[in-house]
Specification:
The protein is of the alpha/beta class. The chain has 2 domains: 70 residues, Winged helix-like DNA-binding domain superfamily/Winged helix DNA-binding domain (Arc Repressor Mutant, subunit A); 112 residues, NAD(P)-binding Rossmann-like Domain (Rossmann fold), CATH 3.40.50.720. It is 41% helix and 17% strand. The chain contains 9 helices and 9 strands. A 7-stranded mixed sheet has the order 5-6-4-3-7-8-9. A two-stranded antiparallel sheet has the order 1-2. A hairpin with a 2-residue loop joins strand 5 and strand 6. Helix 1 runs antiparallel to helix 4 and helix 2 packs across helix 3. The relative contact order is 0.09. The N terminus is likely disordered.
Length: 216
């Protein structure tokens, strides 16, 4: 199922889709086969109108009087998000954050396969985390030339991040997941998602001061 032609889907809608999918996954575990937008609203906190509007961006899903088939909607949202395929991932920076990402085994269940980590620390090079090798950072260009990599994860310091990004882009990586405390600019054809933990914490403290503005 694809989005309607000539309609640009807003970032807010895209960011709600994973939450819908998580909720649907829970419903499947509970053995629930179908659900109405109203019942989904009670579960997830968005209004039924908002849910229908979000899903209508991608065509018709539910049937009046029947609601949504939980498994079908879960699968369709997965297709929309590109989660119906496998991705090869590398991580640059094998410190605490890089290690935590590797140890979060659920990524593989979602189709993200981490093939290697890269670091500059000599005492780490040649070791493994969950059988995934830590390679020398200087070998990154050669590795990208020899392997097809879909996503590069940047877990380095702020000053190193632009250089790492350039090496990844030069190596043909089309998706960047950036955990460095740097706002990076990518060329056309490359997608990036910045994860600034301080931004999330700052938003939390704002909503603590202004609960009337809080959204689920």
């Amino acid at each position: 199922m694809t989005s309607k032609k000539n309609i640009r889907i807003s970032d807010a809608v895209i960011r709600r889709l994973p939450r819908y999918r998580r909720c649907l996954e829970t419903l499947m575990r509970e053995g629930i086969e179908r659900i109405s937008s109203g019942e989904l609203s009670d579960r997830i906190g968005y209004t039924a109108s908002q849910i229908r509007q979000d899903l209508n961006n991608f065509g018709g899903f539910g049937q009046q009087g029947y609601g949504y088939n939980v498994q079908s909607l879960y699968d369709r949202i997965g297709e929309i998000l590109g989660l119906d395929r496998k991705y090869t991932v590398i991580i640059v920076g094998s410190g605490n954050l890089g290690r935590a990402l590797v140890n979060y085994a659920k990524y593989q269940q979602w189709g993200f396969y981490i093939s290697a980590l890269f670091d500059v620390k000599e005492n780490l090079i040649g070791t493994t985390i969950r059988d995934i090798p830590i390679l020398a950072y200087e070998t990154l260009p050669d590795y990208l030339a020899e392997h097809s990599v879909d996503i590069g994860v940047i877990c380095t310091g702020k000053t190193s991040a632009p250089e790492v990004l350039q090496k990844l882009v030069d190596g043909g990586v089309k998706g960047i997941w950036n955990f460095a405390a740097a706002d990076l600019v990518v060329p056309k054809g490359v997608s990036i998602q910045d994860v600034h933990l301080s931004d999330s914490l700052s938003c939390l403290t704002y909503y603590m001061q202004h609960p009337e503005d809080s959204v689920r």
